[in-house]
Specification:
The chain has 475 residues and is an alpha+beta fold. The protein is 35% helix and 17% strand. It contains 16 helices and 16 strands. The strands form five sheets. The protein has a five-stranded mixed β-sheet, with no helix packed on it. Helix 3 packs across helix 7 and helix 9 crosses helix 12. The relative contact order is 0.11.
């Protein structure tokens, strides 16, 4: 009798074990990608030391690189194309604290087999073999990436981002200077095996994601969108840009090169980038209305993206006080105001997509073909700004990259930020939105470390023109 009881208990234990294993298997099968967002860095390091990486493709299935053995990648592009992608792909994840800003970091769970199901691959338990991670397809177009790189590679510090504002896909992100990703032995590492992030103007960093810059006048349409949504009647706002009318509170702010524009309405104020107009109209809002709008546009708010995508946060006030001085300077993209290049592109994407801001898609999966979206302004506000931004390019400060002769409608904005008044250092910008059904793109050019003679219209604008011509030629 005692033997029979033990026998039944044994069967019960076996049955319970089978149920538990089945439940755990089902759990891991169902949990899938949600684990990829919380996987620890230490676990990824272990996987990278255990798995041969999968293959990295661009959107056209061009091979960028593939794992050939554990800890070793083989790169598949020609020299210029590979340089163009170097800091986009990034250094090995073990060599940087900023791996989440790179392909090797964002896609690490895929590349190093985190999603692979150990329970269905039971043969691997009994007969260990080489472990190979999963393949990854990016939204990047390598041909576009290479052409943009050839356009800006001689600058000491430059970035270009291209996004599809209707889908959220990132089509190109070029950051110069670059580094030779094929020569891992040449990486500048400290005693802990970590890269020197400041080496050669941050050549290891994709500064489209992992940096912020003073935006100059490119911030104005965002602030004016907030003002229009708070007070729709401001569509008829008029400001007289003349001598003696540039003092706001206790602060005097002139327009670029001391120019006076005369009577300014919304369209003219944006077209001619009138500082006085932008400040005066934005001051029509209460502080509460401004801060509510900044939150909606995710300025001064740390945005959390899905699929391990990461970028530095943009800020209007920065760490400064919410004072009138900081507000006035922020309204023209100076003072503590800083923007991330990708995020500025995304904000302009919302203007050109009638107020809808799409979350980024950088790595293609079955589940992220349609990114999340947020309404950041009304369609009416977006339409008014689109009209003004088209006038910027056709007859305003962005005329250097007008594409009317090519039959392409482009709206945009230039910006010139005085980073250091003593040395004359400037950061200059050109933003373009292509208003064509088959090319709903926002392109952002940012040139840092420029001299006192540089400006958005005269320096960044011609670069934008070359970039746009190359993008359109692939149409």
């Amino acid at each position: 009798m005692k033997w029979k009881k033990n026998h039944r208990r044994g069967y019960s234990c076996i049955l319970l074990a089978i149920i538990m294993i089945g439940g755990i298997t089902l759990f891991f099968e169902r949990a899938g990608s949600s684990f990829g967002r919380t996987v620890s860095t230490s676990l990824l390091f272990k996987l990278a030391d255990s798995y041969q990486a999968g293959t990295i493709y661009d959107r056209n299935k061009t091979v960028i690189g593939r794992g050939v053995e554990i800890g070793k990648m083989e790169w598949g592009l020609e020299a210029d194309a590979m340089d163009a992608c170097s800091n986009l792909i990034g250094t090995p994840i073990q060599t940087t604290f900023a791996s989440s800003y790179t392909v090797l970091g964002m896609a690490a769970p895929n590349l190093y087999g985190y999603y692979q199901n150990r329970f269905t691959n039971w043969k691997d338990w009994l007969f260990p073999r080489k472990r190979i991670g999963d393949d990854v397809t990016l939204t990047i177009d390598c041909a576009m990436q290479e052409e943009i790189y050839k356009t800006i590679k001689n600058f000491s510090n430059a970035c270009v981002t291209v996004i599809n504002y209707k889908t959220g896909e990132i089509l190109a992100m070029v950051s110069v200077p670059t580094f030779d990703i094929r020569d891992e032995e040449a990486l500048q590492l400290d005693e802990n095996g970590v890269i020197d992030a400041s080496y050669n103007n941050s050549a290891y960093m994709n500064k489209n994601l992992h940096a912020t810059y003073m935006p100059g006048s490119t911030i104005k349409p965002i602030l004016l969108a907030i003002a229009l949504d708070a007070h729709p009647e401001l569509k008829d706002f008029v400001y007289i840009c003349e001598e003696g009318n540039h003092t706001f509170g206790n602060m005097t702010v002139d327009c670029f090169d001391g120019e006076f524009h005369g009577k300014m309405n919304l369209n003219d104020g944006i077209r001619l980038s009138c500082n006085g107009f932008a400040i005066a109209m934005s001051l029509e809002m209460s502080e509460e209305e401004l801060e509510e709008g900044l939150k909606r546009w995710e300025l001064d708010t740390a945005k959390q993206y899905e699929n391990r995508f990461a970028c530095d946060s943009s800020s209007f006030y920065g760490k400064g006080e919410h004072s009138q001085v900081n507000r006035i300077l922020g309204s023209i993209g100076q003072g503590n105001c800083r923007v991330n290049i990708y995020e500025l592109s995304s904000m302009y994407g919302a203007i050109f997509f009638n107020g809808i801001r799409k979350d980024p898609i950088f790595i293609q999966t079955e589940n992220n073909t349609n990114s999340k979206e947020t309404i950041v302004c009304t369609e009416e506000t977006a339409k008014k700004l689109q009209k003004a931004l088209i006038s910027v390019v056709e007859e305003g400060t962005g005329a250097s990259y007008c594409m009317k002769e090519e039959g392409i409608i482009v709206g945009g904005k230039t910006g010139t930020a005085d980073v250091n008044l003593e040395t004359g250092e400037r950061t200059v910008w050109a933003v373009a939105g292509i208003l064509e059904e088959d090319m709903p793109y926002v392109v952002t050019v940012c040139l840092a470390d420029q001299g006192k003679e540089a400006s958005g219209g005269t320096t960044a604008g011609p670069v934008m023109k070359e970039v746009l011509k190359k993008i359109v030629s692939k149409r």
